[in-house]
Amino acid sequence: MRLQDARLYYICGIDRIHTVDAALRGGADIFQLRDKHASDDELLRAAETARAACNRHGALFVINDRPDLVGATGADGVHLGQDDMAIAEARAVLGPDVLIGLSTHTPAQIDAAAGADYIGVGPVHATPTKLGRPAVGLELVRHAAANATVPFFAIGGIDATNLADVVAAGASRAAVVRAIGEAEDPEAAAGSLRSVLSVGAPVG
Asked: Does 130 participate in catalysis according to the annotation?
């Protein structure tokens, strides 16, 4: 039920791990530790901080790309990209109780996301966290709202200036990086985003 009820998904690397507690206080329901360059030891240390913060706030903790570290980090789930381990393979390794998220960038990928517990849909807008991947715009959000069979989080360049448009396109959940991680007040930033997402009931 925590996944079904979740609205705001915060993602950062080890350099912003100090913002996690504030983001969760402000209303983030899920935190993902995503750092492509950190060593395993660095990830494990950051995960210890993140796991403790998520426990304090009743939030879900997800690790990016590393099914092999789920057990060691105490993560509730893993998030995979289209070029990472296949969902079925990850499920066989992790078992039925670990959440598996999947990034999707096209209608076909949304429609083929069987086995994932949730999907990310985007990047809605251009973002430096996904260099080289073109923005998909709101049309893919509309497709997900009409067709996704699991909860979906709109992602990619989403912030307080454009979240209302994303919600109007059919999203009731969003994932953000810079909108919280680079905010002067991460707690207030999370609260503002959460208030926009709290209009109406979740879908999907």
From this structure: yes
Query: Where in 117-159 does DSSP place strands (E)?
Result: 118-121, 152-155
Our answer to whether residue 103 is catalytic in this structure is yes
Beta bridge partners of 155: 175
Spot the catalytic one: 7, 51, 130, 173. 130
What one-letter code names the amino acid at 64?
N
Distance CA 143, CA 149 (A): 11
Catalytic-role residue among 34, 51, 173, 194:
34
* pLDDT band, very low/low/confident/very high, at 200 (cuts 50, 70, 90): very low
Q: Based on C-alpha coordinates, what's the Rg of the chain? A: 15
Task: Enumerate the domain spans of the chain.
Answer: 2-197
Residue 172, classified by CB atoms within 10 Å of its CB into exposed (0-12), middle (13-18) or buried (19+), is buried
Question: Is 2-197 CATH 3.40.190.10?
Answer: no
Q: Is 178 among the residues known to form the active site?
A: no
85-99 pLDDT, tens per residue?
999 999 999 999 999
Look at residue 77 and give its three-state secondary structure.
strand
The tens digit of pLDDT for each residue in 13-58 reads 999 999 999 999 999 999 999 999 999 999 999 999 999 999 999 9
